[in-house]
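Dear colleague,

Following up on Tuesday's group meeting, I ran the structure prediction for the two-component complex that the binding team flagged. I've pasted the input sequences exactly as they went in, so you can double-check that nothing got truncated or mislabelled along the way. The structure tokens for the whole assembly follow below. Feel free to forward this to whoever is handling the docking comparison.

Inputs:
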Amino acid sequence: MAATNTQSWSFRLTPTRVLLFILAGMAAAIALWRLIVGLGPTTNLNDQWPWGLWIGFDVLTGVALAGGGYSTALIVHILHINKFNEIGRSAMLTSMLGYLLVMAGLFLDIGQWFNFWRPFVSWGYHSVLFEVFWCVSLYTTIQVIEFGEILTERVAKPWHKFFRKIMPFLLIVGVLLPTMHQSSLGGLYLIEVGKLHPLWWSPFIPLFFLMSSFFVGPAMVAVETSLAGRAYNHQVDLKVLRGLAKIGGTLMVIYLALKAIDFSNRDAWQYVFAGGLESNMFLLETIGGVIIPLIILISPWGKTRSGLVTYGALTALGVVVNRLNVVITGMVNYYGPGYIPAWTEIVVSAGLVAGGILAYCFIVENFNILGHHEEHEAA
Amino acid sequence: MSKGVLVDLTKCIGCGSCTVACKLYNDNKFEKDSPAIGENPKLTDENWTIVTAKKTEKDGQPVWRYVKQQCLHCEHPACASACFAKAFQKTEEGPVIYYPHLCVGCRYCMLACPFDIPKYQWEKSFPLVTKCQMCSGKVAKGEAPACVSVCPTNVMTFGERDEILALAKKTIESDSKYVKHIYGEKEAGGTDWIYISDVPFEQLGFRTDVTTTPLPEYSHSFLKYTPYVIVGWGSLLTGMYLYTKRRNKIAQEEKKDVHL
């Protein structure tokens, strides 16, 4: 486990990790090729479908799944609910890695990538994307600085005190920013009125994005800690997972209720059971990703580790399907079919995830992440 | 005041002179695979305007109509409001124009446009967004756009938007063959290019379910809360942070178990 006191760095090379390295390497090669030759030859994007898998999965889904960082930070460090301390560091690490991958995915998707900094000086503040851009870049920076507190336990130790001092400020801003950009990622689609299918377009779409990014946090923590628990023989107390899942589950109930009210307001119930691609995908996301996980939580199975992992995996998948539905399924009716992700797009997305897993393993094996129980002294 | 163009579709014979003038003035390439006229022309990075030949019906009789398409230069352009780097801006004279050096290439403008006008240079290493600029240089000098000035049948009238809108109203009122709808008067909150026709617009491929609310308002309805969220949520978080921390500290000092 965390080898804080030994001097050497460790990284075991297992067959799975070799595979992940190959995947990440392929993704890097394709990414380089894409940066040189442009988007046309390397993706299936076109004038009809300007946004595809990279925006839908790497960016929108990535940011949502990384939401575990801010929801955990809120619960552990702002509300100081100490029983959840032990998952604080791993959740925030996953979140930081998630955001770094999102930045990489976004960078690959923009055509004038050397111009990525432009909105810092040319303020298109009428755009929801402007808020997304500022919040996501600031928040990623903040997470990297937050990680400095863990980093300086092992390297550049004299800086450790400094990082502990600024942590409270970072934590507060680090919850404020995601609240804004998680909702504004949904807000991006407000302007798609009449284009995005009414099952997903709603004046409340920013709120739905915010809520789902929050309740996917406990779900991700359940999945992640079980994976890490198996790999590192460090099981998080079941009570902790169950407690977090209850918070997430409560929010999921409110989410469903708000969806129901919204559908009644907009007279959109007719689309739910209309059959066809949209309604089937919507039912998949809602039943498979919200209702069944809730039933698991209420049932006795929800008190066991396998039940909680299943709840977590289904909820996370539900959010993945929801984001892809907004970006792709919900636009098919308007744009018509004409986009299926190219293999290159899929490999790059998979490779980014592979790189993230490798980075997670390296950090967990070399820094004090999983065994961390105490609350910040300064915090 | 904004300049605009009134397009009277009843006068168009589909010759395509306007598409040629557009390419010549803007130095855009002719591409064999993507024609700018015919039954299936496509707006592309090289075709900023197209004329579609449409076989449709009028009073039970089959008829041909020719529909010119280009950027409508919205009064409240969705593309400009969606751009987070101000690469699209509406000039005082009306044209919505593109500043390539500001563009990041995110393509949110393409998604935001209610008429799907902006197109992308997919085959280039460093692609730009392209669309009709309404020959903004000519318009700034008070001249009509290139396509307008070459039309042999006077399909298009260039002028102050107010005046061409009045002209459109007068025309459709005085002649019963016109449908009583000026496309672009209210669509997307009003556009500077407006159309009149003797065949219903939906039959000609126009998007008739476009909202009449200016699209930037949809974004604004969300963004307007941002300052309140920063101040309100920010202070609430700080308050909760300080409160729960102190509560835990007191509980620890008194060695009491406080249930949360």
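Helices of chain B lie at 17-26, 78-82, 108-112, 136-140, 146-150, 161-174, 216-223, 226-253.

Cheers,
M.
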